[in-house]
Amino acid sequence: MQKELAPIGMFDSGIGGTSIFKEIHKLLPLEQVIYLADSKNAPYGAKSQQEIIDLSIKNTELLLEMGAKLIVVACNTATTNAIKVLREKYSTPIVGIEPAIKPAALNSKNKTIGILATKGTLASELFIKTSDLYTRGTKVIEVVGEGLVPLIETGNLQQPALKQLVKELVKPMLKENIDYLVLGCSHYPYLMPILNEIVPQNVQIIDSGRAAAQQTKNLLEKLNLLRKDSGEKCIFYSNKNPRIIEKILQSEERFLVGYKDF
């Protein structure tokens, strides 16, 4: 097989990374993607760094066995805790996602931003380093999205318990008069309908999806690995409940969703 015809491999601790997939698919519609939803082990954010590294290695190796030409770590917690190890271990290009702290801090007029992320992301060395680099002179309100991922993983995005939890988590940030809210987990873009009801219009909500898609395109162009025609279906594997991915994706004909034990 010609290398450019090989798939892009993606993994996340569940369905959240499909928000990143949607941005990649929008920008690179000809590319085939194989996506692993490690829902059995969600959420990664509550695990130790070594556990996150081990899970990330397991997922990466499975995608490489499937012939992936590039790996997208579609999980903030896995990126901030494991991407350095993955890049040292494998020669395949790897794209990660980090909370969009830099654009939020640079563009904030109030010099006050909020970050909603998992405990694993906020405590990671990479996040702390990035935050220290770009948020000098900016007040940062960090909130751990405790309990959000399990509720999002049910696929019921309008359940009252989820709406109530989002309200409680966002309240301390709004009290501090933030003008940017950074979504630091790939699951959280699925909260946008709820956030749009709660958050004032003057608050910009940003995530990492578009930036990850652009970086994927840039790397494929640089390495001459861009696919020039379509034909292959995008494949999504869940090790828990594939029906939830179908519901979230509102599957097109080019998407295949199935169960895989990994």
Explained architecture:
- With 262 residues, the protein is α/β, with parallel strands linked by helices.
- The chain is built from eleven helices and ten strands.
- The strands form two sheets. The protein has a six-stranded parallel beta sheet with strand order 4-3-1-2-9-10, with helices on both faces. Strands 6-5-7-8 form a four-stranded parallel beta sheet, sandwiched between helices.
- Helix 1 (18-27) links the parallel strand 1 (8-12) and strand 2 (33-37).
- The longest helix has 17 residues, at 49-65.
- The chain is globular.
Number of separate helices: 11
Overall residue-averaged pLDDT value: 95
Rg over C-alpha atoms, rounded to the nearest angstrom: 18 Å
Helical coverage, percent range: 40-55%
Structural features:
6-stranded parallel beta sheet, alpha/beta, 262 residues, 11 helices, globular
Task: Break the fold down into its secondary structure elements and pairings.
Elements: E1 8-12, H1 18-27, E2 33-37, H2 49-65, E3 70-73, H3 76-89, E4 94-96, H4 101-107, E5 112-117, H5 119-122, H6 125-134, E6 139-144, H7 148-152, H8 160-175, E7 180-184, H9 192-198, E8 204-206, H10 209-222, E9 234-238, H11 242-249, E10 255-259
Parallel strand pairs: 1-2, 1-3, 2-9, 3-4, 5-6, 5-7, 7-8, 9-10
Describe the structure concisely:
By secondary structure, the chain is of the alpha/beta class.
